[in-house]
Amino acid sequence: MKIIYIITGLSTGGAEVMLYKLLSKMDKQRFSPVVVSLMDGGTWGDRIANLGIPVYTIGMQPGTVKLINIWRMIQIIRQLKPDLIQGWMYHGNLAAQFVRFFIFRQVPIFWNVRHSLHSLELEKPSTNIIIKLCAQFSQLPTKIIYNSHNSAKQHKKIGYCLEKTCVIPNGFETEKFTPSTADRLSVRSELNTPEDALLIGLIGRYHPIKDHFNFLQAAALLLKNYTNVQFVLIGNKVDWENQILSELIHELGLIKHIHLLGERHDVPRLTAALDIACSSSSGEGFSNVIGEAMSCGVPCVVTDVGDSGWIVDDTGKVVSPRNPQALANAWEKLINMGKEGRESLGKAARARVIKCFSLDSIVAEYETLYDNVFAEKNTTIQTAYFS
Fold this sequence. Notes:
The chain is an alpha/beta fold.
């Protein structure tokens, strides 16, 4: 079965990572995936190509749509003759539905929504338009896959078709994200941090919805009572060149306790080095970094947005969003549990990920869904032919 994945872009983000993980585990004897990026190859294009999967780029620029780009996309899809088209992220979903009208074949269209809608005001104006357009056309796709139950509920409220809903959570590579004493020591050596210092980490791109301000304000509160703590922030544009972040760090007096590492490609190593992982977001769908930290045996403190609380369950702490004091209090509780208490929580967290969110089981859900819809399509065609 040839499946074309149309994705908005291939830069670093949770949606792109999950697509890569799905493609890396998919049964290539049964499925022949192809990826079409509406923008460029980004960070993940070459990595996907290294899996032996064709990657096409359309070359669109943010906020602009050119006829030559649209025509290129239509031509590529026509030439590939897919059995199924899977949109990925809002722009990819809309593009998948649009191109369906130009390929003159009965091809199932799936959407994949990788985002929560805690507040539309936090979205770019252009993204807002796409989200609302998708709501208007949401009765057209065969299925709309969400990566969290909360996201499905939020989209239903703004008009997304309920009957098309299907929830498949993110899956995690538990053999890749593992506890590691060696990583803990090597990262501390890299950061020139004492071995006995507590490391609290936030992994995520710089975006208002990730609420780095919440994290930094909580850090300032915690340091009033606990000085042997260091904070590590990792992600695209989370570096000292980010003037807004660096100015806030100086204003809060955090300069001696903060490490801004920017975008890194050794995330499993960095994650395993943490004592506490954190998600301070004001909105989430299904957070990859939470599951990855849990897989590394690191207890998490998360804000109660999206499915974060459900993912963590009783293996960490869940606090209200946009509340630095609550975040600091939760960190304090984990610190006061001591090393053994945190390790016990971490073991429970890893066990939960293995039981509920292993990548193999999630990939199997996608494959079963594709098989079932394709079988239904063939049955319908055969019935129409012989009737």
